[in-house]
Structure formats: structure tokens, C-alpha cells
Amino acid sequence: MIDLRKAYDRALVSMKDAGRTYHIILAILLVLIAWGGFSWIRIMFIDGAGITGSSDLVPWGIYIVGFVFFVGTSAGASLVGLMIHGFGRKDYEPLGTRAILVGFLSLTAAVLFLMSDVGNPIRAGLLPAVLRNPTSMLVYTSMTYAGFAALMLSELFFAIKITLQGGKGSHRDEKMAQVLAVGALLFALMVVHAPHGALFAFLKAREMWNTPLLPAHFVTVALASGIAVIIHITIVTSKITRKEIVSKETLSHMGGLLAFFLGVTLFMDFFDYLVMSYSGKPGGLEIWHFLTTDFYSFFLINTIGMFGAMVILLFKRGRTIPGLLIASTITIIAILSYRWNLIVVAQIPPLFPGTGNIYYTPTVPEVAVVAGIVALISFLYLVLTRVLPMEETYQENRQMTIEN
Fold first, then answer.
1. pLDDT tens digits for 95-109?
2. 102 lies in a domain?
3. Can you tell me the distance from the alpha carbon of 60 to that of 52, in angstroms, rounded to the nearest whole number?
């Protein structure tokens, strides 16, 4: 059993030992959270959605961009648990708890973005228990978040138990962790994320969305974004704490996985764009025109960014610490650009004749809500990684176990 008193005392000591810079960062994040909260209240209860850039013609904007990115990251972060318990990669074990926490917080961010887009939080809370349509993919996907969150919280519980025991828990704990790790990733990819791609693909009125490649594309992009975020967080944390969380060989292996997922994504992107531009369909040509003119910067950041990150990771020198930090950062930015193109550019062609092209630009209140959600998740991450037993506890307890 977990000694709650001991864990509580460790958490108090950890927070007190945190440096001045750490508390300044927390204070800045609290200011951003307050700014975002105030803007959210204005939009939801005072001024309405009229102060945002969205409308009845462009209902999905930056909130859905954030939603799709973070729900993908939550799924991709589950890959670490599979590497540990599914493939027996013991060198990944120090990252186990941190990766699950990143996945759960990413899912939390995704739900917050989705609720911000739905509008009134009371109405959002009624989905899918009261406001439900059994034929709606939106209702189906909203039902899966609770199941995925429950799986990750259960996995986090057993990961903490095993961490506190120096990485060697009871047979039951080890078995439960293995089942939950494999189940969480399969659930994330097959029940949560692939259907998200299908949600878009079923909308045949939108040329950029209506493709059978999109569910598979969502899965590969989710794995790429998740592993890129974990690589980035691991390297930055190691530099700040001046402690090696995992070996350079483990990070290099993670870089190889990222290169593979980027390669698969680029393969699907190439044929998707080829069909879009070469088929001669008016809708596809119109989307291709916008991607290569008004939104060419996002298009280049997405395609060249992912290709560049993959090329870096294909070389041994690219899978060193500096190369991995650069490649993971580029990947995150490139995937954010892809999400922007997918959500925003796809809605520009009008659905009704005579309405003209529709453009969307986020307003300051929308940006404030986005900043507030990201700040809230960052705040929780910084606090929980000080409170919960992470890799330092794992390494200390493992050393004590070996000595005894």
C-alpha cells in the first residue's frame, strides 16, 4: 500500500525546496490563468461568442485546433507505458509516471478546449447523458473521454505504487500496470483518436476532411506529437534539474520512433495532397490554392518542418541531446501548423453559393482563453511533478532496494 503520510511529507518538503525561479514561474502562470478565466466568463456569460472570431459559418476555430492537438498528445504519450510493460523496455521505466501525467493533463486540456467551444458549461456537461444523439460522432467521442481518463488515472495509480517500491512491485501490481498500459494505448488509438479522424472524414461537404486516410492519419500524428512532447519535456527537465532522467541511448531510441511516425505521416500527406491537386475536383483545387497562397506559411511549416525533423533524426548525430531537442520542437510546431490547416483552411470554401470565402481570425479574448488553459495545465504539471513521486523517487528507492 502507498504510505499517504510519507507521500504528503515528501510533497511538502519538495515544494519548500523549490527555488525562487520555480515560484516566480507559478506566479506568472496564475496571472495567465486569471486572464484566461476572465475572458472565458466574458464569452460564456456576459458578451457572448460575438467577441470571438468564430461564427455560424465558421464554428470551429482556435479552440478546436487546441482540442485536436492535445487529445492527440494524450494518446501519443501512452506509448511510453506500452514500451515499458508491453515490450519490456526497462530503460523507459523512469519516464513511466511522468508520461502518464502528461497524457492525463493533455486530455484535460483537450476537454477544456472542447467545452470552451461548445459554449455554456452547463450545456456541455449535459453531453452525452441528456443531450445525446445516438447517430452523432460528437456524442460518441465525448463518451470516450471518461473511459480514457479512468484508464490513465488507474495506470497512474499503479505506476506510483511501483515507483515507490523502486520499480519492482508485487506480481499483481506489475500485471495490472501491464494490462492498463497496453489497454490505454489501444483504447486511445482505436476508441478515441481514430474515431476523431472519422468524425472529420464523415463530413463529405468539406473537401479536406472527406478522405478515408484521415482516421489513420490522426493516429500517426497523435503518436508523433505525443512522443515529441515527451522527448522535449524529458530533455528540458534534465537540463533544468541537471539530472539524467533516462540514458542517451533511450532518448535516441525515442528519436527513432519519432522519425518512423513522421515518415508514415509524410507518406500519407504526400498522397493526400497529390490526390487533392491532381484529381481536378473543384473543391480539392480550391483547398490546394489556399494552402499554397494565403496559408503557404503554415503549409511550409507543416510539411518542411516534419520532413526536416525526420531528416535530423535519421542521422546518429541528430539523435544526440541537441538534435533531439531541435527535432522535437520542430515537430510540435509543425503538427500545430497542420492542425491549424486542417481546422481553419478546410472551412474557408463556402458551403452555400454566393456567400463568398470565409476567413477566421482569433480575437484577443479567444487567445486569452487559450493562454489560460495552457497556463493551467502547465501549472498543474509543475506542481504535480513536485508532489508526486517521479523518476528521482524511482531511482532512490531502486538504489535502496539493490543495497538491501
1. 888 999 999 999 999
2. yes
3. 11
